[in-house]
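Appendix B: a complete holo record

For completeness, this appendix reproduces one full record from the ligand-bound portion of the collection. The bound molecule is 2-acetamido-2-deoxy-beta-D-glucopyranose. The inputs are the chain sequence and the ligand SMILES; the output is the full three-dimensional arrangement of the complex, encoded as structure tokens. No fields have been trimmed.
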Amino acid sequence: MLTNLIVVIMLLAAVVSVITCREVTVSNVIPRRDTDGNIMDAHDGNVFLYDGLYYYYGASYGLCKEPPGPTGCTEWHTGGCGFQLDHNVSLYVSTDLSAWAFRGYVFQMSSMKTQGIMFGPRVLPNPKTKKWVMWFNFLPATGTGVSQSQCAVAISDTPQGPFQLVTEKVTTLAWENTGDLNLFQDNNGDAYIIYNAHIDGSIYNPDHLMSVEKLSDDYLSSLGKEFNSGYFGQTFVEGGAMFKRNGIYYAVFGQCCCYCVEGASVTVYTSSSPLGPFRTMNNLGNEGHAQLYNVLQFKTTGVEGYGYLWQGNKWQSSPDGAKGHDFTYWSPLSFDEDGNVKYMNYTASFIIDVISDIH
Ligand SMILES: *[C@@H]1O[C@H](CO)[C@@H](O)[C@H](O)[C@H]1NC(C)=O
Ligand SMILES: *[C@@H]1O[C@H](CO)[C@@H](O)[C@H](O)[C@H]1NC(C)=O
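The structure of the chain with 2-acetamido-2-deoxy-beta-D-glucopyranose bound, as generated:
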């Protein structure tokens, strides 16, 4: 049955491509709900366009109640909702960035041999291997005290998983004791990880420093120091994201904000090559009081054909205290003639044209 359906779709695809353009209102003050009416529980993940569909992967924190306060990190490991062992990775899909269909949990921490805390999952489809690859931050629960965060990788034949663990610790990275990570895919299929690490291996040392590193062709590991940009930008940073526009590579990240209510102002760095050298550009401010998790390139009307959305987590913002109900804050990015990103004013809601082109 499913095979027949796929064949029909493939036959159709050979002759038609369905192009839709919708004017969409994006609100930052009304909770984002999926097509079943549930508040979207996807935080700290990535959103990208693939073959006419927007994929939104994110960490799911569920209905765990976070005590109110300036940060969700006061109860480190014990009780804090961001440090539970049962986090899942949610997938939502949309053709217009407005109606999001929940496709289930594509990865569950309960499936891991080693128990631990997962945060910040990011997924990319690999055009060479035709596999979907997920990277996430993994804090093993074993051992005593505060464990060191590491990068884990999982893989799937389909976008909706279930993703299978490949490794719970990538050992090829240039820097140890890693923090937040994000993935970036270039037009030629090459992929990069932007991540911060602790310079001396101590989690208490404030030297969270950012760098970019090329992934292997299969996206399952990285290429190490020789393919690392070297640390750049300010210290004590996290929440990085990369994107490309008119041949310029942008890296954007801000001050550390451990599930913090304040959010983080982000600085823009640019380069003509994905591994730098990066030049420090301007700061985009923190008017939305959110922490960046993704910059989404979406298809829109106009000469350029693409627009960019800044997407951040508003930690501790959930009206009912459930961490899974924390708001996310999205803002369109504006550029001047030289490609500089303009300061981000606060926006409660905005309207964009979203084009979907399904082959
Ligand atoms: C993750 O999924 C499992 C199985 O559906 C569920 O029991 C658990 O509550 C979920 N975790 C969270 C944080 O929602
Ligand atoms: C932000 O607001 C200022 C003051 O109203 C305005 O001049 C500027 O154009 C706005 N920036 C953007 C990107 O809209």
